[in-house]
Design brief:
mainly alpha, two-stranded antiparallel sheet, 12 helices, 2 strands, globular
Amino acid sequence: MTTPWLLPQQDARTRRDRLEVLTALINGPEFDPALRGGVLKIPPTHPVYPWSCTVVDCARPRWRRYAMCSVHAEQWQEAEARGIGRAQFLRTAQPLSATEMPEAMMCRICPQRPAFSLQLVLCFRHRNRWLSHLKRHPGGGEAEFERWLADQPSLPGYGECLADVCDELAASPVGLCGAHERGYTRAGRPGGARLPKNFFATYERRDRPVPVTCEDDVAFRAWCRAQLPVHRTGTVNLSGLRPLLRAELQWGMYVHGLQTVAVWHLTWVQSLADECQRRDVASLAGLDASVFRRVYHQRMVQEMQQALRKIYFTPSETRDAGYIET
């Protein structure tokens, strides 16, 4: 008997037809709107994919266990050992402030530049300007900070990140967001894209355009195309996937929410999408789930394939495959 999800890969016409069907279903009135688009912005208390800590007013994302952030999960384990019930713990636990932001923050002065300091909500250049101001005027409090803000000019941004899958703003004239620029440095700077030394003092401070040198533009662009999206709490970025595969993952996430089954953490969904992008997967049909190393990825793919076969195969095709789909 031929396993349905191991049927031979479909031809171009079949892929096009399947994409049209899935697109119609995804645009239908019953489909969860949070699962539409290339970048899925999932609400913190989503009924199927919640990611906020269940302690009231806690601003941190939940850990994989106990539906709490890592700090509250540890506190709950200690409280449980002392005989305290979960409901009582949740009533008395103190909320915590956020240590990371679900979305990239913009500078409060320059809306076209990402914030380098999340505490001050300032870009790199204005953060440095404020620190220099503090050296000249020590002891400046909140009132001084507000006066300083009022005198600061807004600076032009560097455009969007050049990594194909990234929807964030570039953090420097190189053209990469902060996360991708750090990854570019770790990779040894393929293509040799570099900025002049002391470019802030030499160019930006004088409002001159910053020249960017690149030894091999083809290699640099190839690196940008190969990058994975930045992982953000509460976000699943599917923009780097083939159109049919993206629709299949969206439909699989939707159908998963219609049944009482194991929880899918958003980090699992994003890591599955990343793995599919690395492998350049065109469709889940014809894909052997065992190619994925992690067991939860294999189970997720198999569940999605079960949901897709009800759409992809006609009754006659299921008989040919060795099973009956009523």
